[in-house]
Amino acid sequence: MTYGFLSLLPSLIAIILAIATKQVFISLFAGILIGKLIMTNWTFFPALGQSIDSVVNVFSEGWVTKTIIFSFLVGSVVTLIQASGGVEGFVYYLTEKNKRIKNRKAAMLLAYFIGIVVFIESTITCLIVGTVSRPICDKYKVSREKLAYICDSTSAPVCSMLPFNSWGATLLGLIAAQIGAGVISGNSVNLLIKSIPFNFYAISTLITLLIVILTGKDFGPMKKAEIRAITEGKLLRDGAMPVVDQDAIEVNTKKGVEPNMKHMLYPLLVLVVMIPISLYITGDGVIFNGSGSTSVFWAVLASLVFSGFYYIGKRLMTLNEFMDYVYKGAGAMIPVAAILAFAFAIGNISSELETGKYMASLVEGRLNGSFGPAIIFIMSSIIAFSTGTSFGTFAIMIPIAIQMAVAMDANIYMSIGAVISGAIMGDHSSPISDTTIVSSMASASDHIDHVKTQLPYALLNGAIALTLYIVLGIFL
Predict the structure, then answer these.
(1) Which candidate, 450, 422, 439, places its Cα nearest to that of 220?
(2) Where are the alpha helices (DSSP H) in 216-291?
(3) In the beta sheet, which residues pair with residue 446?
(4) Which one of 27, 32, 157, 383 is separated from 10 by 20 to 30 angstroms, measured CA to CA?
C-alpha cells in the first residue's frame, strides 16, 4: 500500500512535539502511534498495541540490541575512568602540570582535534570527545551546548570522509550492489574515494566549526548559551534536562587513589584500537566488509574487560568496587537507551510507510541532470531529518542517487557525495537522530537544547553545500 504524504506525519509530529514540549520520549511515542494509526486505518486500540510492540520488536534486530547495550557499557566505562583518577589526572596534566590548556579556546580546540583524530566510528568519537573534553570545558566555562556541537560536528563529518571505517564499509557495500546490478561500472573503493571532495556539507561543517572556535563568534541560540556560561557560570540553562544525569553517573576519584591520566588513556586506547580489529574480524579479513554495530559493541566490551584487569591488578579498586561502578554507570544510561529504542522504532515505522521512497518519487526523472546533485542533497537531507538515521538514508538514497545520476547524465561522484552530505545534514538537524542523541549524551547536554543551538550552523553549512552542488553541477 502507498501512503503518500501521510508517510511523513510520524516523523514530523515527533519532531514538532519534541521541540515544542522538550519531552523526547512522549514525542517519539506519539510519532510511533501516529504511524500505526495510519497503517491500521485510524483504529486506536490496535494501533496502540502495535505501537508498544514496535518498540519491543526493535530488540529483534541484532545491531539495534548491540547499539543499546553499547550505550549501557559506555556509562560503565565513563564511571570507571573517573573513579580510577584517570579524568582528574588528565585534567591536571593539561591545565596545571604542563599548562597546555589555559583558556576556553584551547579547551574547545582539544575537543575539536580529538574529534578529528578519532575517526574510526562516530559514536566512539562522540564518547571520547565528551569524556576527555567535558571536565576541561567545564573548567573553562564552555557551555554543554557548545561541547555537544563540537562532538556532533566532528564525529560524523570526519567518519564520512574516510573509507576504512564502518561508514566506509556501509557505503562501499551499497555502491558495490549498484555495480553488481550493472547500473554503473568501476570499482566501489575508487568511486567512494573520488566522491570525498564532493562531500561539501562535511567539509564546510569542519571548517565552520574551526572558525567559530578560533574567533569565538557564535550566533543564534548558541551565542546566548555561551554568554550564559561565561557570565553566569551556568553550563546548562535553568530547567535543562541532560540526557545523562551527571549526579547519577559522575563519581570522584576513589579515596586513596592517586590521579593519573594513564588510567583513562589506556582503556580509551583499547576502545579505539579494537574498532579496526573488529571490522577486520567481522569482515572475514576485509575491513570494508565488517559490521559497524558489532565492532563498536566488541570495542567497548574489550575496553571494559581491560579496565577490570588493569584497575584491579593495579589495586586501584577491588572486584566488588569495580562491579559497583559498572552497575552505577550502566544505570545512569537508562534514559539514553530508552530514547535510542524509541528512535529506532520510529525509524522502522518510516521504513514501513516507505517515507524515503515517497520523497524520492516526487522529483525522480523530472529535472535536468545539472541539478541532479543538488536535488539528491535536498532529498537526502529531508529523509535523514524525517527518519533520524544517516545509515538508513544511505540505504535508501545511494541506489536512487546512482540510478538518477545515470539517467540524468549527472556527475556520479558528486551525486554520491551529495547523498552522504545530505544524510549528515539531516541528522544534524533532527531531534530524533541517534547520532544527535549520542552527542547530547556524551556532552551531558539537554538534547533539545543541543538540536536548537546546532540547527543554525547546520542550515548555514547546508546552504553552502547546496550552492556548491548547484554551481558545480552546472559546470562539471
Answers:
(1) 450
(2) 221-232, 246-249, 262-282
(3) 242
(4) 157
Q: What is the DSSP code (8-state) at residue 94?
A: I
DSSP-assigned letter for residue 252: P
Residue 189 has pLDDT above 80, yes or no: no
pLDDT tier for residue 423 given thresholds of 50, 70 and 90? very high
C-alpha cell at 141: 566555562
Q: What is the dihedral of CA 61, 448, 384, 346, to 10 degrees?
A: 40
Could you read off the pLDDT of 329-353 as tens digits, one per residue? 888 778 777 877 887 788 788 778 8
Distances (CA, A) of 197 to 266, 395, 420, 421, 457: 34, 21, 11, 11, 21
- Judge whether 284 lies within some domain: yes
The three three-digit cell numbers of residue 184, written as one number? 554503473
Whether 116 is covered by a domain: the verdict is: yes
More confident residue, 469 or 70: 469
With respect to residue 86, please indicate whether it lies within any of the assigned structural domains: yes
> Between these two residues, 160 and 94, which has the higher pLDDT value?
160
Helix segments in 369-433, DSSP class H: 372-387, 390-408, 412-429
What's 32-89 look like in SS3?
HHHHHHHHCCCCHHHHHHHHHHHHHHHHHCHHHHHHHHHHHHHHHHHHHHHHCCHHHH
Average pLDDT rounded to a whole number, residues 171-197: 82
SS3 346: helix
* Residue 140 belongs to a domain: yes
Partners of 242 in the beta sheet?
446
Nearest C-alpha neighbor of 333 from the set 310, 292, 309, 300: 300
Count the Cβ atoms, other than its own, within 10 Å of residue 312: 14
| In contact, 254 and 98? CB cutoff 8 Å | no
Whole-angstrom Cα distance, residue 36 to residue 33? 5
Helix (H) or strand (E) segment spanning residue 334: helix 334-352
pLDDT at res. 369: 63
Range of the domain at 131: 62-174+208-335
In the structure grid, which three cell numbers stand for residue 25, read together?
Answer: 520520549
For residue range 253-273, list pLDDT tens digits in order.
777 788 888 998 899 889 888
Number of folded domains in the chain? 1
pTM more than 0.70: yes
Q: Residue 176 class from Cβ within 10 Å (0-12 exposed, 13-18 middle, 19+ buried)?
A: middle
